[in-house]
Amino acid sequence: MRTDSALPEEILETVLRSMGTAAAGRLRAAPEAPRALALALREAASLQCAAPEPLVFARHLGARLSEAEDPVVALERLHARDLALALACAQGTPGAADLFEAQVLRKLHGSLARLHSSPTFVDEVLQALRGNLLMPRPDSPPRLLGYAGVGSLLHWVNISAVRLALRMRKAQGQEARVDAEMLAADPAQGGLELGLVREEARSHVRAAFVQAVASLDDEDRELLRLHFVEHLSLARMGELYGVHKSTLSRRLSGVKALLETRTHEGLTERLSLSQEELDSMMRAVHGRLDVSLSGLLAAKE
Amino acid sequence: MSCPDENDLARHLEGQLSSEREQQVRSHVAGCAECRSVLAALSPNEARTSFAEVGPLATGTRVGRYVVLGLLGEGGMGRVHVAYDPELDRKVALKLLKPERFHEDSLALARQRLEREARTMAKLSHPHIASLHDVGEYQGQLFLVMEFLEGGTLRRWLTEQPRPLREVLERFRQAADGLAASHALGIVHRDFKPDNVLLTKGGLVRITDFGLANATLVPGTAAPGPVSPASLTVTGTLLGTLAYSAPEQLRGERGDARSDQFSFCVALYEALNGQRPFEGKTREALLEQVARKAVRPERAGVPAWLRAVVRRGLSADPAERFSSMEALRARLSRDPGARWRTVSLVMLGAVLTGLAVFGLLSRQPPQALCQGSERHFAGVWDAETREATRRAFLATSAPDAEASFSAVAAALERWKLDWTHAHQEACEATRVWGEQPDQVLGLRMACLDERLEEVTRVVAALQEADARTVARGFGLGGSLASLRRCSDVRTLLEAVAPPEDPAVLVEVTAVRAELARANAGLFAGHTPEALKVALAARERAVRTRYRPLEAEAYLLCATLQEDASAFEDARASLVQAGLAAEAGRHHAVLARVLYAQAWLSGHDLGRTQEAWAYLNRAQAVAEPLRDPEFDALLNYVRAELFEQEGRFSEAEPLLREALDRVTAKGVSHAAARAELNGRLGLLARHQGRLLEAKRWQEEALRLQEDLHGPDHRDTARALVNLGGTLAHAGELARAEAVLQRALASLRRSLGEEHLVVARTLSNLAVIYFEWGRGPEALRAAEQSLAVARKSVPPEGADAVLMGMTSNRTGVLGELGEREAELEQARRSLAHRERVYGATHPEVALDLHEVGRLLRLLGRTKEAQGFHARGVVLQESLLARGELEGEGLRWLADALLFLGRVEEARGHAERALARLERDWGPVAPERIKALVLLGDIHLAGRAPAEAVAPLRTALAALASEQVASARVPLARRRLAQALRLSGASDEACQEARRAWLEWEPWRKAYPGEVAEARAEKDRCPR
Q1: Residue B44 pLDDT > 70, yes or no?
Q2: A209 touches chain B (CB under 8 A)
Q3: Closest CB from B47, B69, B72 relative to A195
Q4: C-alpha–C-alpha distance, residues B340 and B484, integer Å
Q5: Which structural domain range is residue A229 located in?
């Protein structure tokens, strides 16, 4: 089997030389290291014409491994092909950029589109991201070189991209409104179900709902966004906030109630309907909010 | 700390950080919104709800005959939507099954299996099992249609907030009830878990997805796909199912009813302890833990008896579990807190009981308290007293004595069980678990002793049974004091302080005993005797100057006075009771006084405005008391007030909820159940849903007959209501038989002069009227009015007599005296405008009726005014979708008269469709709509189209042997339509026949008669 093929001594030494002495010592002591390194190099080579030079890759690999808590574990779980791709991109190897575009950037649409309803927003973020990751900086190499092969490259870039997108959103100053639009956009995702509201009132209800979401404070809005737009389960949210999911469940119910009250208030101001008509409309909206919001809560752990 | 970089977050997600660094990252994330959002975007899929694969159905999608309204949630079996069933006009839950849930079988086979299951399930109509309405196929997926429940899943209910033990147990007891019932029919659930237990709005349990695991892939036996390390650990919904599977199911066996027991106990364990009983996330790990009996230790608060029950259900060997679900259920019912508390349907009962100040009666010595609680019932309710009570009941020789005794015995048995467990629990909480101080134990015991004392008096009074006792026995279950208050420590500690002076204390205790005696008399139906006792006790109470006691005494007097129909006296007593309660800060009594005032002013005195004010205050006072049982009573009054104001759609959900509650309580509340069925029938009728009303009323009749036998006045009352509905539905022969039977029975049991007799006669008048038997109709109408005048006091007579007077003048009008009928119609209009408000839907109908009569009298100008007003009113109702069949029919009729033919056609067609759905084929309203449609086609110069509806109308009239003016009315139009569409021979036949049929009605329909003559004269001799 090819997996048993020997690793050229030169490559192994290059890797070890590129590491600090302590890390190199640990790797040298690990019996399974040579096999894992051989595997990593073969994965890197699978990029074919876009693959970096083996010795250059070995140096890069060594440097990244030395940053790990435990180089042996890091090597074992290394995403070697992704690491090679990041290196090739930063070096401008022909063909690498296309692969990066197709296998990484194009897959970010989903998570970025959940942050903003504007169709141009994703493109703006990706444009900024390309500059940010691939262009050499005044006194240091492109940021993409910082990818250490822990987890997939897609994950790593996704982190960068979402962070960038969040900051761009904030800079545009429309955060609250954008979140509200996202929540109102998709009925199935816990937003506003207007199917039962009379045609002429729909735009008012929607506007009142958006206004109500926008009026929430940042934390409340974040809860709604994570749960209903990002679709996180309460358990997962609990991990992020470091609290028990029942606490979050209570907080979410509170926000939901507040949201309904404010939507009602907004409508009262907005429409000069008779009390009776307003009530009947609110019953429809209320029922729907409840069904769509609580339906989701019920669906999860 | 600045945000961790990409590598650190990646390591955090991959679990590659040192524990120290991991801690730093976690605490940073918990405080940094941006990092949370970044990680949220990366969260693995199982942390999300998976809307991915097929996507929920869009609102408005048609699945079979159902219209999707929205997504409800997602479970292991598939996605659930809310949908609308236009045929039955109701919301349903529509579950699309995931295709991968099926074996390689064809869809057709799977569907066959599901349909078989559905048929079996249909046999199982049980309050704790959700009904399955329909099975079908949609784009290659199977779907189930189930009843729509608004309370969410049991899992959600459990995780929303911490729930008290007794509430948790109550829900599981209901679920056990449902499972036991299904096992009795040989149906095994095979996939019981909290996600498959739904709750109604009122919190009642309904188990769903019954036997679905049979029809689809059994989760436990599923091959886990290609073997890879990842698939050995199952996550998400599959784990959700595995974790509840019995070991035999995990091993791939089919399992039996005892497997459901295991699943049930896993769920119950989890609900009690916040985690599942066995560790392990793989099939193998779970099997091993079960085999080793490695149940995780329970939380401290779970009582030992309950731990033992659950652990037995979790035995690896099915033979070591309970012999049946029924046995398990019985063991769970040991807990005292686990029942729905009684809802008393009348103002009676639970009024005085349970309010006394604690600590006045002698207490049991604490030793040996935790065992043999039953012994306290020796001589109170044991085999001997039971037999003595039965003898006393039978000695009254009332026809329903035996049935009444059964209800009484069931109520007392249940109460005894409740009491025994409450007693044991209170004791264990201190002596066994050390959870509560001795002082609290003392309060709880004293409270229980007082309740027992009260019931002792009730049993004694029951042994003096007479006919009144038998009549009242059916309601005893709803009136016995609840024991909930005795375990509500907070209320106990806040209770009103007893008087300090020992002499006063002695007198207070003595007066309370007298009040308890009077209260027991009330329960036994001995109202006048009890009132004497209560009035004397009240005098003594006032002299003690101890205000809480005074409040209790006045309240009891008021209750007795109300029961004796001495409404003004009751009113005065309640005012005094309220003042004393406020002065004595006796909030529990104050809340009940306000409740009684609301009931008295609303139900007895017809002053709804005033009643609302009392009701709102009662609610405010009751709020801090947190007593769900009392809240249910308030809701019942609220429903009553809504009904009186004609707000039927608002009353309906409240009564439905009440019905759910009493149904869950079983035989001791059968009388309340029968009454509620009847009232819901009247509500459905008021809202124009006749066929539904019929079903409610037939059920009510069945229940009353079961309880009281065929000849009892309550059975007769149910007959009267059913007969009225049948009359409106046009089933005249059946209606007449039902009402004649009722009349005979009522005259026997209530005598001639009673309002119900009057109502029955009035309903009979309607039937003869519809039949065209004028003289008989007139006789019945006049008799009805005469009886009513004698039996209603003059001050309340207006409202009661209005309907009967209208019936009489209606009959007279049809015989030619239209002026009198018109005058009465105007009075009726004015009355309804005053009582219901000027925009109520029924006011519009009255306006049109006046218009119709003016037209018949040839006063078309005036008629226009009334119809126009009616139309304006109805158009705003129409815009809100609040116009039902009868209203639409009137609207179309008026529009046709006003010359708006096209609009009239649309409304008439809709009216016809609704009436056919809601009123049935022979309903007079449907026939009127058919004739109207004929008129509209004639007016629109489409005579050929008029033929069919007119023929249908005549066929329907013929099928019930109707000979009223409606027959020639339709036939003359048919003749005209036939003539205009060229069938002149047949036209002439019909014209001549119509002319003859007009004979008895000529005086009342001069215009119509002239037209009929002209039609006839067109024909050759």
Answers
A1: no
A2: no
A3: B69
A4: 10
A5: 175-299
- Locus of tokens 């279950």: B477
User: Which of B17, B37, B67, B157 to mutate: most A Cβ within 10 Å?
Assistant: B37
Of A69, A156, A230, the CB nearest to B16: A69
Taking the Cβ of residue B14 and every Cβ of chain A, the question of whether any pair is shorter than 8 Å is answered with yes
What is the C-alpha to C-alpha distance for residues B920 and B739, in angstroms, rounded to an integer?
A: 20
pLDDT of B965 above 90: yes
Across the interface, whether the CB atoms of A193 and B59 are under 8 A apart is answered yes
Report the pLDDT value the prediction gives residue B437, as an integer from 0 to 100: 63
Residue A198 Cα, gap to closest chain B Cα (Å) = 10
Are the Cβ atoms of A222 and B155 closer than 8 angstroms? no
Average pLDDT, chain B: 82
Query: Residue A1 domain-assigned?
Result: no
A66 touches B: beta carbon within 8 Å: no
Q: Mean pLDDT, to the nearest integer, of B508-518?
A: 88
The pLDDT tens digits of the residues spanning B614-668 come to 999 999 988 877 777 788 888 888 988 888 887 888 999 999 988 887 787 776 6
Structure token digits, residue B329: 């259920």
Asked if A160 has any chain B CB less than 8 Å from its own CB, the reply is yes
A62 with A95, same domain: the answer is: yes
Q: For an interface test with A, give the residue of B2, B8, B16 to mutate (most A CBs within 10 A).
A: B16
Q: Do A162 and B11 touch (CB under 8 A)?
A: no
Determine whether the interchain pair A159/B155 forms a contact, defined as Cβ–Cβ distance below 8 Å.
no
Asked if A232 lies within 8 A of B48 by C-beta distance, the reply is yes
**Which of B129, B321, B279 is closest to B212 using CA atoms?**
B129
Q: Name which of A219, A236, A245 is nearest B43 (Cβ-Cβ).
A: A236
Domain match, A43 and A181 both: no
Domain ranges, ordered by start, for chain B: 6-40, 154-331, 335-495
Distance from CA of residue B917 to its chain's centroid?
Answer: 23
Mean pLDDT of B970-978: 95
Q: Average pLDDT, stretch B48-56?
A: 46
Q: What is the mean pLDDT of residues A71-93?
A: 89
Of the residues A134, A169, A204, the one at which a domain ends: A169
End-to-end Cα spacing for chain B = 111
- Please check the confidence at residue B401 and state whether its pLDDT lies above 90: no
CATH architecture entry for B154-331 = Orthogonal Bundle (1.10)
pLDDT reported for residue B740: 94
Tell me the DSSP string of B905-951.
HHHHHHHHHHHHHHT-TT-HHHHHHHHHHHHHHHHTT-HHHHHHHHH
Q: Report the DSSP beta bridge partners of residue B82.
A: B70, B93
Nearest to B296 by CA among B281, B279, B313, B283: B279
Residue window 824-883, chain B: list those with CB within 8 Å of chain A: 880
Distance CA B403, CA B388 (A): 16
Q: In this model, does residue B844 exceed pLDDT 90?
A: yes
Of B345 and B902, the one with more pLDDT: B902
Please count the structural domains in chain A.
2
Contacts B159 to A, Cβ<8 Å: 245-246, 249
- For residue B52, the 8-state DSSP code is -
Q: Do B38 and A162 touch (CB under 8 A)?
A: yes
B75 has a chain A CB within 8 A of its CB = yes
B991 pLDDT more than 90: yes
What is the CATH classification number for the domain harbouring A282? 1.20.140
First to last CA, chain A: 46
CB nearest B49 (choices: A240, A241, A296): A296
Q: Are residues A163 and A211 in the same domain?
A: no
Given the residues B5, B85, B177, B191, select the one marked as catalytic.
Answer: B191
Q: Supply the pLDDT for residue B286.
A: 85
pLDDT tens, residue by residue, B96-109:
876 554 443 445 66
Residue B317 annotated in active site: no
pLDDT > 80? residue B924: yes
Question: From CA B335, how far away is CA B305, in angstroms rounded?
Answer: 9
